[in-house]
Amino acid sequence: MIKKIIVLLITITALSATSLVWSQKTQTGANVSGDVKSDGKHIPYANILVKGTNRGISTDEKGHYMLADLPKGKHTLVAKFIGYKEQEKEIEALAGQSITVNFELERELMSLDEVVVTGTKTFQRKTQAPVIVNVLGKGTLEAVEANNIAEGLNFQPGLRVETDCQTCNYTQLRMNGLGGSYSQILMNSRPIFSPLIGLYGLEQIPANMVERIEVVRGGGSALYGSSAIGGTVNVITQIPQSNSYDMSYAYHSINGRANDHLLNGNISMVNKKRNMGAVLFVSHRNREQYDHEGLTLHPDGSTTKERDNFSELPKLKNNSFGANLFYEPTDNQKLELNFTSMYEYRYGGEMIDKLPHLAKQSEERIHHIMMGGLDYEIHFNSNLTSLNAYVAGQKTDRDHYTGLYPERDEFDTETEFDDALYEHLANPPYGKTDNTTMQGGVNMNHNLTDFFSG
Asked: What value, to the nearest 5°, has the Cα angle with vertex 33 and ends 31 and 34?
């Protein structure tokens, strides 16, 4: 394994060095500069691409750009930015000459043609994807005040996040009516979610780390294996776009009897060349147990409102943090690294201040989850061919308890009850689960410009 990693690093270094040498040999002095505006205002961090090549750059924080040492000849420049219509302009690059090309972009009222990746495992426009891909963006998650992705997915058609246990409130994602085992959950297009995380992980991923969620429903998602018969949910984490930070605090009161506190923070950083950047996020949640008032039916047919001291909503404590980083050594290469750590404490059942096994009935879950991935991508052959190598994994440590305290009326004799009580107190049913998932691979894509001829 170590030898394979060393060979991969040597290959990446060699490709990087080759690209650097090639770029040094193509200095033409043909430069293009300008700005990108909309309604008279500059657009920072818009993308300027040379169509049909791997050359491109982003505008700076003031909306200006400069492309240096373009190959001599005619080119098409493309300006694009999320929420705006693309614009193309024809230019002719002459050796030793600099020209100015400015763009004026129009706003796009509806984002019907977003770039998605889930449908085919490659970047496609929504209108060109062979399957229907629904996108839940960061703005929508903020608008519905979703604390985690489980709350956000409830607003997607054909999806239902179902709570299947009143005590611990574990959830499963149903797609097209099928159970959770038929839904594949991806993190940055990698199937690193174990079945164990699938039950609890949707509530552990804070909404502030998500850029968008892509959803493919039905058999078209079977590209991702037998677990995706119902559909696929691909959680895309944030990529740094600008130097910014934000902090938010939310407070919820549950019928005035339980408090829910949520604290989120994000920091995004990019360098001036925009070939290196990082996003850091942190999230903390603390929710108290909640016992809802119910109706008790008496033998005479009358009812009274009372609480039974058993929780309808479990106690939750969540701490999550992580980072996404990228580095582009050359125009046609990119390295991405992402890491996430999640901790959750969950307790439901009889509301007592004792150890779980001393409650009449209770469930306790403690999760420590680490997830991460490393991607390397290179484009060559006039941007017609791309090679991607990746490794990803997750590790879950879970401590758990599920049990009932022995009751006298459940046993025929006093001796049986005493034996059961002694066994429960001496060896309470606590458990521990360790789960590790690793994945790696290499993808190569090539666009055929003249597949059919004649």
From this structure: 165
Three-state SS for 217?
A: strand
Q: Round to whole Å and give the CA distance between 145 and 254.
A: 15
Reported pTM? 0.69
Distances (CA, A) of 46 to 17, 152, 303, 367, 431: 28, 28, 65, 40, 52
Q: Which amino acid, one-letter code, is at 219?
A: G
> For the CA atoms of the chain, what is the radius of gyration?
27
Binned average pLDDT, 10 residues per bin, the chain of 454 residues: 47 46 60 91 90 84 89 91 87 90 81 48 52 77 81 79 83 78 79 64 79 78 66 83 88 93 92 88 94 88 89 93 91 89 93 94 93 89 83 91 92 92 94 89 80 56
- Phi-psi domain of 274 (left: phi exceeds 0; alpha: psi -120 through 50; beta: other): left
Domains of the chain: residue spans and CATH: 27-104 (2.60.40.10), 115-446 (2.170.130.10)
CA angle 355, 358, 360 (to 5 degrees): 125
Choose among 54, 57, 53: nearest CA to 44: 57
Chain centroid to Cα 152, Å, comes to 12
Instruction: Give ∠ CA 274-211-102 in degrees, rounded to 5.
Output: 40
Distance of CA 343 to the CA centre of its chain: 17
* Burial of residue 65, with CB atoms counted within 10 A of its CB: 0-12 exposed, 13-18 middle, 19 or more buried: buried
Residue 176 Ramachandran class (φ > 0 left, ψ -120 to 50 alpha, else beta): left
Looking at the chain, how many residues does it have?
454
Cβ atoms of 148 and 203 closer than 8 Å: yes
Contacts (Cβ under 8 Å, ≥6 apart) of 451: none
